[in-house]
Amino acid sequence: MTVDKLCARVAELLRTYPPATTDASVFHRAQFDAGLAWVHFPEGLGGLGLARDLQDVVDTELRAVGAPVNPAGHVGIGVGMAAPTILAFGTPEQRSRYLRPLWLGEEVWCQLFSEPGAGSDLAAVATRAVREGGHWVVNGQKVWTSSAHVARFAILLARTDPEVPKHRGLSYFILDMSAPGVEVRPLRQITGEAEFNEVFLTDVRMPDTARLGAVGDGWKVANATLSSERVAIGGDQARRESGMISKVAELWREHPEVRGAAVHDRVMERWVAAEVFRLTGARLRQRLATGAPGFEGAAMKVMFADLAQSISLLELELDPDAALLYDDWALVRPASVDFLSRGPGYRYLRAKGNSIEGGTSEVLRTIVAERVLGLPGEARVDKDVPWKKVPR
Amino acid sequence: MKIPVGSGPVRLSLVESEDEESVRTVVRTLLADRCASDDVAAASDGRHGLSAPLWRSLAVDLGLAGLLVPEEAGGAGAGAREAGTVLEELGSAVAPVPFLTSAVIATSALVHLMSAESADQHAVRDTLAAAASGGSVLTLLLPWSTDPSGPVFTVREEPDGLRGEATPVAGADAGTFLVPALGADGAGLWLVDRAAVQVTPAVALDMTRPLATVRLDGAPARLVVRGPAAEEAVRTGLLTGAGVLASEQVGLAQWCLAETVSYLTVRRQFGRVVGGFQAIKHRLADLHIAVEGARAAARYAAATLADEPDDAPVAVAVAASVCGEVAVRAAEECVQLHGGIGMTWEHPAHLRLKRAVADQVALGTPVRHRARLGGLVGIVPDGECR
């Protein structure tokens, strides 16, 4: 389909459902059914089977006429991780059951991957799923689960065979979060808030139709999910002097008392680093559009974490009196991370998570070294050992 | 505070085009054949036998001397993107040729004057035509450390000719000097023949880019332009030079990274390939990340010089402040991670280290570029912020 035809399709949607007089949820259902939700998805599932970057054409057209934005359609575990995985590995029934309400935000998703004993070493998950007739019974503990307290479904990685080496004994499921035995508790962070949860699973029963991919193929399916996550993290399109550096620049311009010749070069170093990050992201996106290999997402994430941490620390140093204070330690449950609406202390503390969540900077450096530079792999002492015999 | 240009999402292409890649291939092939490290290293012992024939091939056979000269003036009519691509390759090989000083900096200053009514168009076009054909080599008479907003008048115009001294000048083996001078009638830009000046070669840290002290004692000169256009032309040359020097630094850094990775995948100690130690892997991953950042900054600088000149001052300051540091870091890592062999004259790492350190100072240090950038984006050290 040409861009012209795509634009004609957008125009048709806008004619039939004029945004000014149409309820937002009605408009979004129509947008999904017209294949304009995510054009790279297949027809009938919110897409038209087109190239991924053509969605920008649609979004630009819709923005131009003030069509309602679908926040659930553009952020979160559901669209970023669950949807591409369901598309790649789901049965036709699973695809048609889950994708539409997911994109519409009618059903929130969360991700049950990490565990207290399986962080960087995700393939070591110990949550067990045992087959009982046509069902699976799940027992275990998951952690760092954002949105679990509001989620309708979860993508779940569980061990179905402890007798084989760790990567081979995993299976991937869609878990109904309202099932008996699912308990969600807030996990308070160093910032005082609780973005995340711990999720305890006790004798939770799932039908076998909740499985995504073959039994034992969970690792392969999870990798598809995780590569989507890294692209999502590294791929946003920023403006110059946006993000954390905007706070430092604003502080400098509006508060003469923080200015000093000695610290000026350090501020400019961060300003330059933020601009370099923006340009590197832009270049990576342009290369991905032409099909260049994708491990650079790991590099982008390391760069981002270093940047966020170094800018937020400098912001504290620039304004010492503010650095001694904190805006609010109350345990709140934010739906997403918003660095900019909080104080400098929050920014500093929350940025510590940037080099841990979604792959620690150490693990990502190893990925860059091995996958991009071709250096030898790490020793894997647990690689050919049955999971249950690995010391833990 | 309004940030006037470049504030939206990046629209310029930061990916190498097919044309640029074909330029790269041609230059790389020639350098692989004609620019051996041993010959480059010989420059430090005063043997410059490589430079002239290599430059002849690049300048005349490949037409690189006229790369930035418009077609109407006898050149190839290419832009900063292509110049950046060429410089990545020249930086990778530390080729001892005057492409940057003559074909980029001096040439860009003169090309700027092609649209200046006050300029002597005969002088501009004759000089560009001679340079584009490879028949003459130009250089701008300024200390090599001058940044795009630094002082550009080190020479005075006196009744009996030009007088003054600039040191250290890069590309001082040129046949024609482009000389900015201040006199009773204001600023001017002049052409001075090599025979009319006193050139005292210096012993340079980086002997692949020869430096000299150049003295003018009442030298006869041909006036190109008088008035504000003279300074504008010089600053255009310096800005273009600093912008594409970033690409040279990226090329050099990439060589250091690739060479180090390749060595460490074969070098063994303690019965293991050294590149398998995580302490080494993580350092190289960090270096790769830094080089990719520098590459994006350098390509953006070249792209703005070519297609979005309003944003070029900011883009060049960003690239110049980051690429110089990344190149030095890459060269230092290359020496360190090669172990003993990296410290020898025999191994080509030292050529890159010396070039990287000299390049970091050339056309303004990173600190100076950041200071300049602060002024451009309204983050200034003291007093009123715009």
UniProtKB/TrEMBL annotation, chain A:
- Record-annotated Acyl-CoA dehydrogenase/oxidase N-terminal domain positions: 28-106
* Protein name per the record: Acyl-CoA dehydrogenase family protein
**Needed cofactors:** FAD
* Organism ancestry: Bacteria, Bacillati, Actinomycetota, Actinomycetes, Kitasatosporales
Which Pfam families would you find in this protein's record? Answer: Acyl-CoA_dh_1, Acyl-CoA_dh_M, Acyl-CoA_dh_N
The UniProt family comment states: Belongs to the acyl-CoA dehydrogenase family.
| Keywords tagged on the record | FAD, Flavoprotein, Oxidoreductase
Give every Acyl-CoA dehydrogenase/oxidase C-terminal domain span.
Answer: 216-373
Q: Which residues form the Acyl-CoA oxidase/dehydrogenase middle domain?
A: 110-204
TrEMBL record, chain B:
* Family the UniProt entry places it in: Belongs to the acyl-CoA dehydrogenase family.
User: What keywords does the record list, in alphabetical order?
Assistant: FAD, Flavoprotein, Oxidoreductase
Which PANTHER family does the entry link to?
Answer: ACYL-COA DEHYDROGENASE (PTHR43884), ACYL-COA DEHYDROGENASE FADE28 (PTHR43884:SF20)
**Acyl-CoA dehydrogenase/oxidase C-terminal domain boundaries:** 235-366
Q: Name one GO molecular function term.
A: oxidoreductase activity
EC top class, as a word: oxidoreductase
So which cofactors does this thing need? FAD
Which segment of the chain is annotated as a signal peptide?
none
Name of the molecule in the record: Acyl-CoA dehydrogenase family protein
* UniProt keyword annotation of Oxidoreductase present: yes
Matching Gene3D superfamilies, A to Z? Acyl-CoA dehydrogenase/oxidase, N-terminal domain, Butyryl-CoA Dehydrogenase, subunit A, domain 3
Q: Give every Acyl-CoA dehydrogenase/oxidase N-terminal domain span.
A: 17-116
The EC number on file is 1.-.-.-
